[in-house]
Design a protein that fits this description.
Elements (H helix, E strand, L loop, with lengths): L2 H9 L8 H16 L4 H30 L7 H9 L3 H9 L2 E2 L2 E2 L4 H19 L5
Antiparallel strand pairs: 1-2
Length: about 130
């Protein structure tokens, strides 16, 4: 594995993170990658990395859709967006469906998937505790 490939592998797990430490590390890695992208071999490695990343994003989006498709009408997207993410329904809908926003396709990152899963479990518990008397 070349040094260029190693830097790309360091970048991959922090791409969607927005904390200051991750943002600083991303900036340093991107600067290094840009400075070393001047030869054909590194450019081919970068192109393959991007293509693989896009394929993984597409598969993640399809997997999310498949998982919630059967209960999509039951899932309160606007409630989950507002109460669990502090965002709008459109924000969550775009990520669940992999819509383009300002030219970039967004999906849920691992932390957001965990939040979504926790929201579903919480809602299920709340509904399960309701009994008419």
């Amino acid at each position: 594995m070349t040094e260029y490939e190693k830097k790309l592998q360091e970048l991959k797990p922090i791409m969607a993170l927005t904390d200051s430490e991750s943002m600083n590390k991303k900036e340093m890695l991107l600067q290094w990658l840009e400075a070393h992208s001047d030869n054909d071999e590194n450019q081919k490695i970068l192109d393959a990395f991007i293509e693989k990343g896009l394929a993984e994003e597409k598969e993640d989006i399809l997997a999310i859709r498949r998982q919630i498709e059967s209960v999509y009408d039951l899932v309160p997207i606007s409630y989950i967006a507002k109460h669990y993410f502090g965002k709008s329904r459109a924000w969550l809908y775009q990520r669940v469906n992999g819509n383009k926003v300002r030219g970039k396709v967004y999906s849920l990152n691992d932390q957001q998937k965990e939040t979504f899963n926790n929201a579903l479990q919480d809602i299920a518990k709340q509904i399960g505790s309701i009994r008419l008397t």
